[in-house]
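Please decode residue identities from the backbone states below.
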């Protein structure tokens, strides 16, 4: 079974990923992994990770983004440290999330 990991940090981004996530979830040959981060976990923005769960998805990891700096390297260190990534694929709509994921993978 191939694993696909979807990283989402905002409600707008999730809206773009929703149908893709449904298709991955419905495919018997794929395993969907979801990482919720950013605004999804913020009370200020409504804790929108709950909407993901209400839509029938299981969130595999919630990652708080307590950043000390906004450089791409610091974002990758704080945001994605210690995650074991799937061998098959990853989806992120935000360029900074994509960079942070790939940078954290290169350093592990």
């Amino acid at each position: 079974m191939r694993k696909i990991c979807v990283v989402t940090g905002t409600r707008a981004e999730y809206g773009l990923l929703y149908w893709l996530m449904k298709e991955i979830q419905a495919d018997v040959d794929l395993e969907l992994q979801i990482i919720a981060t950013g605004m999804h976990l913020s009370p200020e923005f409504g804790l929108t990770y709950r909407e993901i769960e209400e839509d029938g998805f299981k969130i595999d990891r919630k990652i708080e983004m307590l950043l000390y700096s906004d450089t791409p390297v610091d974002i990758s260190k704080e945001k994605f440290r210690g995650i074991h990534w799937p061998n098959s694929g990853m989806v992120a709509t935000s360029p900074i999330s994509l960079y942070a994921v790939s940078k954290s993978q290169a350093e592990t």
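Observation: The chain has a mean pLDDT of 76.
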